[in-house]
Design goal:
FAD/NAD(P)-binding domain; 4-stranded parallel sheet
């Protein structure tokens, strides 16, 4: 019986498991992850502005694992040996015939003072803390921004920050305190959000300008202090700083023999096969994929596309077939600003930004689908 080990319990890992079980009903599938819960990260902005409860963004995967006949091991990965055939964890060594790395990315620990910030991409509990601090604020400044990976442009996640700013603006207006609370969007990039496409950037930035959200762009981020964002273009004094750090590869990958990109991600082809490592695949944010467009995002939708592709290639190779698949290059997201929303789509052939309140309902429906798919 083929032993397949999947590292992680996020969107990419779970999409891989579903696709593998359809194609390989008799395979032994083991999932190794520190948590048997899926966090629906797109819902965290709703938690931060009080539209959702934290509990609705966390899905218990126990029944999903039972349905898919998965062996779940609660553990943290510490490394790989024997070219990936042995996974080192904090509960012991686990062998495999095929390995899928879907642990997600690591976070850049710089700049200094990051402990003075909160991240909207962290956890439901952190989103709740953002909500509590915003609700206590009647006057002052909220600064929201994101960083990047200097060695790899793909190591940035700005969409949730844009969405949070628009939602905070709407929330503060509803509470009647927007005139007393300044919103500031900061980023070291001179054109933040450009991965969404020019049409989306123009639309979103236009909305921010009309709503009086101050921009602090193109200044190198030097660090944070209590109530202060420090840049080489001047400081931003704020009562609350929300910051999404840049992304890098998993920390344990540096002690393995896996091929790494300049930014620390695991190098693979568009079939999700790790270069030079037969039987080892990577899906989702941990990977650096050859031949992809510069705008290709690190997001749940992309991770799911990569998971399905990896499963197809694993099944083909185990059957001795030469056919190889490549994942579809596509960006799809909804920027939900509470009283408005924009659906952003980008592919090799199109770049669209379509406004409409209907997209709020679409986003909630998709979140409900994920809860049904992976929960009860």
């Amino acid at each position: 019986m083929t032993r397949i080990v999947v590292l992680g319990s996020g969107f990419g890992a779970l999409a891989t498991v579903r696709a593998l079980r359809r194609r390989l009903p008799d395979a032994e599938i083991t999932v190794i992850a520190p948590s048997d819960h899926l966090v629906l990260y797109p819902g965290l902005v709703g938690v931060a502005v009080g539209e959702q409860h934290a509990g609705t963004t966390r899905v218990n995967l126990g029944e999903f694992f039972d349905r898919q006949r998965v062996n779940y091991v609660r553990a943290s990965v510490q490394g790989l040996v024997r070219s990936g055939r042995t996974v080192l964890t904090d509960v012991g060594e686990i062998e495999n015939d095929v390995l899928v790395i879907a642990t997600g990315a690591g976070k850049m620990t710089s700049p200094v003072g990051i402990e003075h910030t909160l991240s909207i991409c962290s956890s439901p509990e952190t989103a709740e803390e953002i909500h509590r601090r915003v609700r206590r604020l009647r006057r002052g400044t909220i600064a929201c921004g994101f960083g990047g990976n200097p060695a790899e442009p793909a190591g940035a996640r700005g969409g949730p920050v844009l969405e949070l700013l628009l939602s905070l603006d709407a929330d503060l207006r509803r509470r009647g305190v927007r005139d007393e609370v300044e919103l500031v969007f900061f980023s070291p990039a001179s054109n933040p959000g450009e991965r969404l496409g020019s049409a989306a950037v123009r639309r979103v930035m236009g909305v921010m300008t009309r709503r009086g959200i101050r921009a602090h762009f193109g200044h190198r981020l030097q660090g944070f202090d209590e109530g202060r964002v420090i840049t080489d273009g001047g400081d931003v004094v704020a009562d609350l700083v929300v910051y999404v750090p840049g992304l890098t590869g998993p920390s344990w990958a540096h002690s393995s023999d896996l091929p790494l990109s300049p930014g620390g991600f695991i190098r693979a082809d568009r079939g999700c096969r790790v270069l030079g490592h037969p039987g080892v695949y990577v899906v989702g944010d941990a990977g650096a994929y050859e031949g992809v467009e510069d705008w290709m995002p690190k997001q749940g939708h992309a991770a799911e596309l990569q998971g399905v592709t990896a499963a197809a290639n694993i099944a083909s190779e185990l059957a001795g077939r030469a056919r190889r698949r490549a994942f579809r290059q596509e960006l799809v997201c909804v920027l939900d600003g509470m009283d408005s929303a924009v659906m952003v789509y980008r592919s090799r052939h199109a770049s669209l930004a379509i406004p409409g309140r209907c997209w709020r309902r679409v986003k909630r429906a998709l979140e409900a689908r994920e809860r049904r798919r992976y929960g009860r």
